Amino acid sequence: MQDRLQNYIPQQAISKLHTLLEHDNLIIKVKNERKTKHGDYRPLPDGKHQITINANLNPYRFLITLIHEIAHFEAFKTYGHAIKPHGIEWKRTFQYLMLPFLNPDIFPNNLLPLLALHFKNPKASSDTDIKLALALKQYDAPNDKTYVFEVPMGLTFKLYNGKVFKMGRKRVKRFECVELSTGRIYLFNPNAEVELIK
User: Fold this and answer.
1) Which of 64, 74, 8, 17 is nearest to 41 (CA)?
2) Which helix (H) or strand (E) holds 130?
3) What's the rounded Cα separation, in Å, for the pair 196 and 156?
4) How far, in Å, CA of 123 to CA of 12, rounded?
5) Are 153 and 163 in contact (CB under 8 A)?
6) CB neighbours (10 Å) of residue 124?
7) What are 12-30's pLDDT values in tens digits?
């Protein structure tokens, strides 16, 4: 599997990553895109541990997601299963594991200051860090999606699941949008990708 991973991450990260993956009981699977998550970790009933990562991530997001999930595995090994999934034990583990990768040989210069800021207190998902998420998306393959913050007030858009929304006002950080079929109000992160209805 380690040989296959080199197709998904920055080449300069391979040797550093090699040492993190030297576990007989850690299985890593690359999956087709899942809309609701970039990756996940779970202990298996047979004592092994499994990490899955979406295949469609750009190399920088793939690496961050992989280290995120390895941090879950390491935190589980060190502290047991009674800890919070994204609690202080996981945060410290993630910071420690990520530090050797935060250099210009691996990440572009425009990402490094944003990553340094993010890793002062890493969140459950890098997508909630709006500036970092938008900077990472510059390295994604082009698509026909629009960011919510680009949708003009009053226009409609739809999500991957077919639900249709009307754009509303901006609150402090997120945008208020009305689901047309139910009238319910939802709050969207500015970097959510949606499809404009023309």
Assistant:
1) 74
2) helix 130-137
3) 6
4) 25
5) no
6) 12
7) 999 888 888 887 788 999 9
| Cα gap 110→80, rounded to integer Å | 37
Residue 176: CB atoms within 10 Å: 15
What is the structure's pLDDT at 1? 47
Q: Round to whole Å and give the CA distance between 134 and 83.
A: 31
For residue 122, what are the contacts with CB-CB under 8 A and spacing of at least 6?
Answer: 68, 91, 94, 95, 98
Phi, psi angles (nearest 5°) of residue 50: -125, 135
Taking alpha carbons only, the member of 133, 171, 169, 130 closest to residue 153 is: 169
Q: Which amino acid is at 16?
A: K
Q: Which residues pair with 6 in a beta bridge?
A: none
- CB 18, CB 2: distance < 8 Å: yes
